């Protein structure tokens, strides 16, 4: 069964789609459209949800299942540097080591047994991460209280946020997992991590994220990175488009050695960042070009739509003008037909023409506006309206007219008015037995 065709986007939706792609940097237009449709084309909500997703906050519509943090730790090319503990020297050193060995063995064995048994009674509270930022900030405060404020700049955010920022900025991320109870932790923090040369190197070359494994956020990162010894450092960088662990440093390492190892790891993986920068520049240029093409397309689309709108408006105007002209022609035809019917009716209603020898007969010659003459006889006793109806019934007579005597010149009141509802008779109007009357055209008036 064929998949249904997607509904065509409106102009407003197309503009929102391009704006959302520009704000989020997503390359897939289909993904941009799905995201906007999930948010009912609310671009502010869609952008905010996308930013939350980039910062590690689960999406409202696509909450990810619980799984380890998405960092590639399976690369077999990971550089590992493990510092072994210094062996005792001299008779006194070996004697102390051998005396303390059974006590240390017994202590750590009993501690492991206790923790193992306790895990069956009460689940490890570190397994539930409820406030990852609070875990990091709390660790930073406790670190400063114990070791002072002279230390590398800690990233004050979650591990996921640090990964996202390192990926976005194309920087190396150095992760430090702090083991509170480990015997080498104090020595590493005081004499290596907080030294001037180490903190200067880290602050100028990479992002630095740290947390204690006794806190849920640090414990979760520990489960993801699977460290074997403390102090533990991991170098993470974008590689093959994934945030990948490219270096692991375990054990009590000295400042100069730490700088050398970090520098070696960074130089070995600098090509990855260079390649990614070039790819990003190419993608950005492609995106800018596509945006320019989209803007040009939208501008062309708007121009075409404006042309189409004007064309429709002109067609509508012509249609209305044609309709008005047609209605005018029809109205004129109806008016002429009505006029002809009225003329015919008036003609049928005229009284018969009196004979020549009738003593009350009045012979009237009418001069029409087209210079033609019409002659007819009427009776003295007939109303002037009869004269008007006779002239109105003629085809040569204009639609509106008045009847005028020659000398003295006067207009005969042939039609009823409010002052004179009954027009006078021919005799009352002062007409003689033979008259010449003029028909004056009033149509243009």
At a glance:
The protein is of the alpha/beta class and 445 residues long. The protein has helices spanning 11-24, 29-38, 43-54, 90-121, 132-147, 159-169, 185-193, 196-205, 216-225, 255-349, 384-393, and strands at 79-82, 172-178, 206-212, 232-239, 242-250, 361-367, 373-379, 401-405, 434-441.
User: How much helical structure, as a percent, in the residues?
Assistant: 40-55%
Terminal-residue CA separation:
77 Å
Count of helical regions: 11
Cα Rg: 53 Å
The total count of strands amounts to 9
**Averaging pLDDT over every residue, what do you get?**
82
Question: Structural class per helix/strand content?
Answer: alpha/beta
N to C succession of SSEs: HHHEHHHEHHEHEEHEEHEE
Q: Indicate the overall shape.
A: rod-shaped
Uncertain segments are 1-5, 60-69
**Mind describing the biggest β-sheet?**
5 strands, mixed
Strand order of the largest sheet: 1-5-4-2-3
Which percent range describes the beta-strand content? 5-15%
Could you please describe the fold and organization of this structure?
The longest helix has 95 residues, at 255-349. The protein contains 11 helices and 9 strands. It has helices spanning 11-24, 29-38, 43-54, 90-121, 132-147, 159-169, 185-193, 196-205, 216-225, 255-349, 384-393; strands spanning 79-82, 172-178, 206-212, 232-239, 242-250, 361-367, 373-379, 401-405, 434-441. The chain is rod-shaped and about 175 Å long. The two termini are 77 Å apart. Helices cover 51% and strands 14% of the residues. It has a 5-stranded mixed beta sheet, with helices on both faces. It has a 4-stranded mixed beta sheet with strand order 7-6-9-8, with helices on one face. With 445 residues, it is α/β, with parallel strands linked by helices.
């Amino acid at each position: 069964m064929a998949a249904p065709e997607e509904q065509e986007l409106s102009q407003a939706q197309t503009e929102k789609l391009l704006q959302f792609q520009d704000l989020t940097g997503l390359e897939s237009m289909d993904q941009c459209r799905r995201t906007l449709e999930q948010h009912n084309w609310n671009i502010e909500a869609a952008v905010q949800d996308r930013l939350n997703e980039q910062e590690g906050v689960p999406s409202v519509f696509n909450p990810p299942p619980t799984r380890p943090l998405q960092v590639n730790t399976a690369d077999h090319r990971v550089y590992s540097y493990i510092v072994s503990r210094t062996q005792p020297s001299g008779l006194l050193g070996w004697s102390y080591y051998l005396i303390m060995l059974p006590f240390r063995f017994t202590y750590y064995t009993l501690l492991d047994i206790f923790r193992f048994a306790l895990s069956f009674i009460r689940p490890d509270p570190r397994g539930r991460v409820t406030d990852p930022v609070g875990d990091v900030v709390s660790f930073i405060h406790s670190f400063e209280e114990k070791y002072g404020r002279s230390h590398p700049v800690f990233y004050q955010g979650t591990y996921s946020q640090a990964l996202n920022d390192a990926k976005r900025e194309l920087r190396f991320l150095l992760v430090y997992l702090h083991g509170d109870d480990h015997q080498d932790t104090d020595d590493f923090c005081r004499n290596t991590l907080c030294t001037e040369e180490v903190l200067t190197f880290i602050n100028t070359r990479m992002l630095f994220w740290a947390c204690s494994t006794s806190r849920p956020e640090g414990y979760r990162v520990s489960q993801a990175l699977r460290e074997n010894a403390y102090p533990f450092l991991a170098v993470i960088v974008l590689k093959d488009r994934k945030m990948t662990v490219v270096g692991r440093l375990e054990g009590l390492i000295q400042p100069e050695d730490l700088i050398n190892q970090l520098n070696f790891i960074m130089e070995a993986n600098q090509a990855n960042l260079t390649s990614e920068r070039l790819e990003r520049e190419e993608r950005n240029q492609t995106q800018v070009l596509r945006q320019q093409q989209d803007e040009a397309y939208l501008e062309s689309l708007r121009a075409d739509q404006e042309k189409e709108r004007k064309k429709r408006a002109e067609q509508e105007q012509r249609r209305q003008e044609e309709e008005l002209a047609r209605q005018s022609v029809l109205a004129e035809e109806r008016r002429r037909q009505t006029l002809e019917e009225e003329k015919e009716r008036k003609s049928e209603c005229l009284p018969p023409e009196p004979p020549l020898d009738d003593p009350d007969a009045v012979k009237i010659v009418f001069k029409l506006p087209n210079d033609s003459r019409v002659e007819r006889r009427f009776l003295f006793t007939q109303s002037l309206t009869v004269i008007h109806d006779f002239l109105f019934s003629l085809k040569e007579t204009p639609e509106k007219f008045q009847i005028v005597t020659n000398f003295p010149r006067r207009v005969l009141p042939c039609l009823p008015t409010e002052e004179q509802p009954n027009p006078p008779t021919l005799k009352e109007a002062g007409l003689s037995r033979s008259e010449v009357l003029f028909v004056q055209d009033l149509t243009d008036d």
